[in-house]
Amino acid sequence: MCGRYTLTVPGDLLAAAFGVEAAGPVAGLPARYNVAPGQQVPIVRRREDGGRDLALARWGLVPHWAKESAIGNRMINARGESVAEKPSFRTAFRRHRCLVPADGFYEWQATAGGKQPWLLRLRGGELFAFAGLESRWIDPATREPLDTCAIVTTAPNELAATVHDRMPVILAPADYALWLGEAGDGRDPAALLAPIPADRMEAWPVSRQVNRPAVDDPSLLLPAAG
Questions:
Q1: pLDDT averaged over the chain?
Q2: 158 assigned to some structural domain
């Protein structure tokens, strides 16, 4: 699964990296070292006119048919193997795929001393995008809209497998257009739901302070003492 991640790149640089005209609501966001479910996160999505937007969505997808938003608390990830068929995600997979910008993510390794968090990222801390899904939910009581998202996961590569049995799908920049539905060449976006090559990544154990969502500072990126 993917339950925490990092995004330390300013909004204007995100816009440039993902071909978005303006940073919009993401412009003033601070660097994040411990993004947690239920929080507002930046996503890149396709507009109806074919352009791209940077938007904010709550992490934890709420399907349009849900009676209450609390369902999103357990829908932060979508398994790539079943995303096209599972009722909770299939509409978003067909019509509302998005990119979730990040520059690292955490996974927890089972050890004799308890679960040890690890930071995994592309070599050098390069910016990347998770394969994401988005959904707009309308509160039946207030009629207020709520934009939400989930991160798609897959089997781990050789490096990630030493830590956990799942990992998020990291898309290559050349595949962004296909995932967003811009390519128009008939290729199946499901073909992208595979692990990134392990030799492109690096990883190390970090402080258990990352277990606390309230802790959100650069020290979380440092290798754990001892």
A1: 95
A2: yes
pLDDT of residue 226: 65
Q: Is residue 66 part of a domain?
A: yes
In the chain, % of residues over pLDDT 70: 100
Spatial distance between the Cα atoms of 151 and 56, rounded to a whole number of angstroms: 14
Q: Report long-range pairs for 185-193 (Cβ below 8 Å, ≥24 apart).
A: 189/93, 189/97, 190/80, 190/83, 190/84, 192/131, 193/80, 193/81, 193/83, 193/131, 193/152, 193/154, 193/169
Residue 100 included in any domain: yes
Return the active site residues.
Answer: 2, 107
Residue 187 pLDDT grade (very low, low, confident, very high; cuts 50, 70, 90): confident
Those residues with Cβ within 8 angstroms of residue 175's Cβ, 6 or more apart along the chain or in another chain: 192
What are residue 172's phi and psi, to 5 degrees? -75, 145
Structure-token pair, residue 90: 């299939």
State the total domains in the chain: 1
Q: Whole domain around residue 164: which residue ranges?
A: 4-221
pTM above 0.85, yes or no: yes
pLDDT at res. 183: 78
- For residue 8, is it within any domain? yes
Residue with tokens 């040890």: 116
pLDDT class for 124, splitting at 50, 70, 90? very high
